[in-house]
Write a structure and sequence with these properties.
This protein is of the alpha/beta class. It has 2 domains: about 55 residues, no CATH class; about 300 residues, 3-Layer(aba) Sandwich (Phosphatidylinositol Transfer Protein Sec14p), CATH 3.40.525.10. About 40% of the residues lie in helices and about 10% in strands. Helix 10 crosses helix 11.
Length: about 375
């Protein structure tokens, strides 16, 4: 039972606290006033001790409870900071660090390399083609199949180059292509590297394998700005031999660098740079036969061969030339082709360091360009000329 005094006291306190005529207080002040309210604070009622019955007031959960004198306060719980998991850097970030000169944080390769090679090519920079190869698990079974059949006549890099270039071709079609490549090589070896090529042809179509990029891709330059027309069938035949020998050298250099880095079969593409400075419309017809010959050999005998292709110093006449040879270039190669004018050095140096670009093309390399040469310092390749 609640006494009349208690009821009136509660009613009075309730009306005072929630009176609509009273300005609204902020939440903080309202909580404080309520927590301090106790019975007997009403000034409009008189206390009658005979009828007074104290009613317990429940303290809000958020209010601090007073501890007994002998009690010790509980220890505050320490917050444990969770460390974020480190994710390995992507290939894009590693490439960006190469361009800007930042330190790389990628995982080092466990294999051993010689001191000169490891300085030029940090062990963590794997070629883009081998990274893509690992992700294409569907091709691994096919590689095992064709390696068992052609492993004695074709290198692992060449088999992977064909499989990555034509991933959707049937096994029968792939076998025919590989067989054709084997027969073509057997017709050239072993005398292809020792055969005579006219010095006039080497000077009329200046080419050079000059240095590599940071992934170990050899850089093949063709300086068509100094191109001269060939004379007679003899020079045309020498040019075809010259091209075949150059492409075979490029593949052998790729294999050599991969082996030197203790990663056999991990490099099978290169970077090509074609200088079209000063090319006129009158040179278009002659260049057409050269470029179509080159593309036919590379596409049918080497599979996927180019990582990047740069056409530099391209003027108006280049439009006529490009419309001629574009039908012979695969879609993958076209996607990786960069066409620039005279301001090419910024684009070129984004992939190839300036100290590895010939000085004749605006680089700062200490080594000289050699017509028909193979300029690979510290790599120990057994040939110095194409």
């Amino acid at each position: 039972m609640i006494s009349l005094y208690t009821f009136s006291h509660l009613s009075c306190n309730f009306s005072r606290e929630f009176s609509p005529s009273k300005p609204r207080r902020d939440s903080h002040h309202r909580r404080r006033s309520r927590s301090k309210s106790n019975m007997g604070t009403c000034h409009t009622c008189t206390i009658d001790e005979d009828h007074y019955e104290p009613i317990p007031v429940h303290v809000h959960s958020h209010a601090k409870k007073k501890l007994p004198a002998h009690a010790t306060p509980p220890k505050a719980k320490k917050r444990i900071k969770r460390k974020k998991k480190k994710t390995p850097p992507s290939l894009v970030s590693v490439s960006a660090q190469l361009v800007t000169g930042a330190e790389s944080s990628c995982t080092e390769y466990s294999g051993e390399t010689d001191s000169e090679t490891s300085t030029m090519y940090p062990s963590c920079f794997e070629s883009p083609e081998i990274v893509e190869w690992r992700n294409a698990e569907i091709l691994h079974d096919r590689e095992e199949k064709f390696s068992h059949e052609f492993g004695d006549t074709l290198s692992q890099a060449s088999i992977r180059a064909f499989l990555s270039a034509f991933p959707n071709d049937s096994n029968e079609s792939m076998r025919d292509m590989l067989l054709k490549a084997v027969e073509w090589r057997q017709g050239l070896y072993p005398g292809i590297f020792e055969g005579h090529v006219s010095r006039a042809v080497i000077e009329k179509v200046p080419m050079c394998i000059f240095e590599t990029d940071e992934f170990g891709h050899p850089i093949w330059y063709m300086d068509l700005a100094r191109y001269q027309r060939l004379k007679g069938k003899s020079e045309q035949s020498d040019l075809e031999t010259y091209f075949c020998r150059t492409l075979l050298h490029i593949r052998d250099v790729e294999i050599h660098i991969a082996d030197k880095l203790q990663r056999p079969g991990s490099i099978w593409t290169h970077v090509a740079v074609f200088n079209f400075k000063g090319i006129t419309i009158w040179d278009v017809k002659a260049l057409r036969s050269i470029i179509v010959m080159l593309l036919n050999i590379s596409n049918t005998m080497f599979g996927n061969m180019t990582y990047k292709v740069y056409f530099i110093n391209c003027g108006r006449s280049f439009r006529m030339i490009s419309s001629i040879f574009k039908p012979f270039i695969s879609k993958e190669t076209l996607d990786n082709t960069i066409i620039v004018g005279s301001e090419y050095l910024e684009q070129l140096s984004s992939l190839i360091p300036l100290e590895k670009i010939p000085s004749t093309l605006g680089g700062t390399s200490k080594h000289s360009w050699v017509d028909g040469g193979i300029v690979l310092p510290h790599m120990g390749y057994k040939y110095s000329h194409l």
